[in-house]
Specification:
This protein has one domain: Immunoglobulin-like (Sandwich), CATH 2.60.40.10. It is about 30% helix and about 40% strand. It has a five-stranded antiparallel sheet, with helices on one face. It has a five-stranded mixed sheet with strand order 3-10-9-5-6. β9 and β10 form a beta hairpin. α3 packs antiparallel against α5.
């Protein structure tokens, strides 16, 4: 009986998962439901917009943010890959404790999209919302767009949870039609 107990104890000890840690961090424009990054977000990233510069310059920041949100759908985000699969307790803990925020200068806000997978977690925010919200807080939402005033835009992507925290950043620029 004692031998069986020791045997079960050894099996249980060897089957318990090791410490959870992040083994890969990706800035990601679009991630899939399996945790793969379909479109990488480079540290110096340029979005190509299918809109003329003339049209943009006749928009307010609010209108421009709405255009990006509904037409371009650019979504800067972050994808964290773990060293192993998450167990149910870890998924529950991450679900309640994981927070991802973006920061532009002094303005910070929570990322809108978040998904937890088998061995990864991702978060994103629409670029249109980022711009619209930041310009509103700065009191500039109804002013005409001046791309040079905001771009290139440095966005810090921060994350925190009961298990880990960290930060990444990306510089975003826009390329528009002449």
């Amino acid at each position: 009986m004692r031998t069986i107990f020791i045997f079960l104890l050894i099996i249980f000890y060897n089957c318990s998962p090791g410490d959870l840690y992040i083994n890969k961090i990706e800035n990601c424009e679009l991630f899939q439901s399996n945790g793969s990054c379909k479109e990488k977000l480079l540290s110096n990233h340029t979005y190509k917009l299918a809109i003329s510069k003339e049209k943009i310059l006749n928009m307010t920041w609010k209108d421009f943010g709405n255009h990006l949100y509904f037409q371009s759908k650019n979504t800067p985000g972050i994808l964290l890959h773990f060293n192993r699969r998450l167990n149910e307790k870890e998924k529950e803990t991450l679900s309640s404790s994981f927070h991802a925020v973006y920061r532009i200068g002094d303005y910070e806000n929570r990322m809108e999209g978040q998904e937890i997978g088998e061995d990864w977690i991702g978060a994103f925010q629409y670029l249109g919302s980022i711009i619209k919200d930041e310009r509103k807080i700065m009191g500039k939402a109804d002013e005409r767009v001046s791309l040079k005033e905001l771009f290139p835009l440095n966005i810090k992507l921060r994350y925190t949870s009961a298990y880990f925290d960290g930060e990444s950043s990306v510089n975003i620029d826009l390329e528009v039609q002449p």
